[in-house]
Amino acid sequence: MKYSEEFEPSSRGVPAYPERELRDRRLESRHVERGAMDLPFFLLTILILTIGVVMVLSASFARAYYGKLANATYFFVRQLGFAVSGVVIMLVVSHFPPTLLRRYSFYFLVLTWVLLVMVLLVGTGGDEVGATRWLDLGFISFQPSEFVKLAVILSFATMICKYKDRMKTFKYGVLPFAIILGITVLLLYFEPHLSASVIILALGAIMMFAGGTRWQYFVFGGLGVGAVGYLVVTKMAYASARITAWLDPWSDPLDSGLQTIQSLYAIGSGGLLGLGLGRGVQKYMYLPEEHNDFIFSIVCEELGFIGALLILILFALLIIRGYWLALHARDRFGALVITGITSLLAIQVILNVAVVTNLVPCTGISLPFFSYGGTALWLQLAEMGIVLSISREIPLRKKSTTGGKDRET
What we know:
By secondary structure, this protein is an all-alpha fold. It has helices at 18-29, 39-66, 74-93, 98-103, 105-122, 144-162, 170-173, 175-189, 194-211, 215-235, 237-247, 258-270, 295-327, 332-356, 374-391, and strands at residues 135-136, 141-142, 399-402, 405-408. The chain has 15 helices and four strands. The radius of gyration is 22 Å and the shape is globular.
């Protein structure tokens, strides 16, 4: 695939010379005419989001009513507000020029590292394993680990564009990326947040592969990560307990295996066509996290195999459209950013479905646009806004024939 080199700094010679910086600033400040955003991607996002909000209402009203809230629509009203405001955020972000993201990508990465350190110092949200993953600002709480995923995507895309001709070397194609991943995963280890670490490592590998890193480095890196992961799992009591519950949930049906067992009951009782929207049983205080990480179990129970399959098809169409936009992006940076965001979406969907069906051990991975949560939904829609922003420049990449040769305009 041929990218336009107009917006990319040269990677020959020693990086970060004043001449190159001056030229980069001139290119970034140049006015770029932008077209309309990609309509299929936007409509698929809105459709999936709408279904997700409806499912939050169906999955959460029992817990909201019978719990301490005594308000059946509590979670739904809040999620609806997050969804509407999130769409506004998506539309606003869709007007941001990609050069702005590129210019401040490393500042954003450092900011997320600072937030991860703050989690270790003043974080909240301890659960049964003592994990601390949230920052509570009083008026809002959020997980910095969600923001660091986007920061890795943006910073990696910037670095790959900078080292584009040297990505096959260890010094430029592996070492700086490994340092960023190492710092990030180390901070997540102390929370601990194993699932976020796995996602970020997978994202980093995908970005590096798309950037041109030699495949041999992935073999050695995979072996190293596998060895370290094995040691971490064996040393962390909660991780080994989840492995045991994954292999045999019925060994502890009232504690570590409860969530998996109830999830399988919900999926199995849905059958082909489901029990009907709102008629599920497991949400009546049987299945924990029924409106959050395990909302797909309620989808299967109420909409059945057919309904769940249609939702997965919608996700697949959104992911395929994302990769199509990456292939047609105006420049390398845009293509890499869309690749990273689309891959993040795909990883989270696949892992969430795998968890609720007990294909992989239970982890705290939410289903994008479905699971309840305000800041997570805002961030996901902002990421879709970034994709739409980059898509605005795609219609301008046309070809005209001059003197028997194709010329890009």
